């Protein structure tokens, strides 16, 4: 039987799932069109920097050791786990806000520096959250789950249904994953992320207003990532409860 906090978290998770499954709105389609036009105005060299940065980030998550320093937190209630998640999230959100303001103040060149710096902040946040929920981030398949959390946060609405289905059935899905991490489709991953970059992040490259835009956008996107991460791990938490109650 769920306690009062778990019931609240379960309702929030269900509401989040409904948002993930919604059909793309007219406004999101219009925004997508504007983003496409703005992307066409950005020099190809900048697009190349973004692409290479994301590729390196994905490979660092899969192969690197710089994100494995967190201690796994086990034996805590969901309420306590999420209290820690919110505290850690505030720290990373503040760091992202400051980073966005500093890099946004410098126009295009400094704005470019925001992409790798902000990616690093977001990925470190996800590794911290995974550890707080008790998952071993040294495990390759747990790292893949982190990438799926990242992807469902920053992908198009059309793709979220497919990604959510895999995350909901993660225990089954991971049995189908290749043991060779080189088979991870990072190209699709980076394309989705590039396509998601909203007008605010693109406007961060504009001198003078970039500082305010960068701070607000980074704050907003980090908050969004934290919300998605919490609900993603709630999926697995409540799936585990269902299996225990079913005796499987």
Automatic annotation (TrEMBL):
<dbReference type="Pfam" id="PF12787">
    <property type="entry name" value="EcsC"/>
</dbReference>
<protein>
    <submittedName>
        <fullName>EcsC family protein</fullName>
    </submittedName>
</protein>
<dbReference type="InterPro" id="IPR024787">
    <property type="entry name" value="EcsC"/>
</dbReference>
